[in-house]
Design a protein that fits this description.
The chain is about 55% helix and about 5% strand. With about 260 residues, it is mainly alpha-helical. Helix 2 links the parallel strand 2 (about 25-30) and strand 3 (about 75).
């Protein structure tokens, strides 16, 4: 299983290499389709104006941009789906809600985004937002683990926009499920920050433009430990959490079996 940032922005030769060199069969894209670059910040605004879809779970859908790569099963599963969006919008004060609606219906999307990011997202920070994802995105995580449980999905690539927040959260759950030591999980998570250095200035510019601080480009310290504590406190651990999401014992064991590397020593 591989994790990357945005393979759709890779050169044509690199995209072809996904199958010819790495043998990738499945790509799971955790981004939202509502805004390609800063998708997770835009989708809550869209949800307000499409309330008839609020109760519908996000479902995997093909993206035509990957259909030109033979042999790849492309799945779009917006991890921060409608339930996550509703949770953010509910945190807006009445004044903020009015501004958000006004900016959006007048097609001032940048102002609408800044209203949500500066009022709700920036004050919370990445770690609390990650816990909100765990609290709300159950149907999306079930869809992801369903794919992870299928042997035919592998080799598999999973990504979001920066490859550290939504992707990092999913990988954290997978590694916990596979009994990887917490210290190794934390080291793996924080390594993402180093890999993003070449694109740091561009990321910071995007974040500042929508009202988010530079800390949103980082891998926050204590993220893994906080998630681990939350899982233990609310669900008794990752096994209990995944059971509550709908990932039963057989599916969990199949994920472990798919990722297990036998000791040949």
């Amino acid at each position: 299983m591989l994790t990357v940032i945005q393979p759709d922005k890779a050169a044509a030769d690199d995209q072809v290499a996904l199958t010819t060199i790495y043998g990738i069969r499945t790509i799971i894209d955790l981004r939202s389709k509502s805004l390609p670059v800063l998708s997770s910040f835009m989708s809550p605004c869209l949800t307000i104006l499409r309330s008839e879809h609020l109760a519908q779970a996000q479902k995997p859908t093909p993206d035509p941009s990957y259909l030109s790569i033979p042999g790849i099963n492309y799945q779009l599963i917006s991890l921060n789906g409608s339930a996550f969006e509703r949770a953010l919008v509910r945190k807006l004060p009445w004044g903020g809600m009015a501004r958000l609606l006004y900016h959006f219906v007048t097609s001032n999307r940048p102002a609408a985004i800044r209203t949500l990011t500066t009022t709700v997202m920036a004050p919370q920070g990445l770690t609390p937002l990650g816990l909100t994802t765990l609290s709300t995105s159950h149907s999306e995580l079930l869809a992801i683990f369903t794919l992870l449980s299928l042997p035919t999905s592998y080799p598999l690539l999973i990504h979001c926009t920066q490859g550290k927040d939504r992707t990092g959260l999913v990988i954290l759950l997978v590694l916990l499920l596979c009994w990887v030591p917490v210290g190794a999980i934390d080291k793996d998570y924080r390594a993402s920050e180093r890999e993003l250095v070449p694109e740091l200035e561009a990321r910071l510019e995007e974040l500042r433009a929508i009202g988010l601080g530079d800390d949103f480009a980082e891998c926050p310290k204590g993220f893994v430990e906080t998630v681990l504590w939350w899982l233990a406190d609310r669900w008794g651990g990752v096994e209990g959490y995944l059971e509550g999401v709908g990932v039963g014992p057989e599916m969990r064991e199949q994920v472990r079996a798919n990722l297990r590397v036998e000791d040949r020593g």
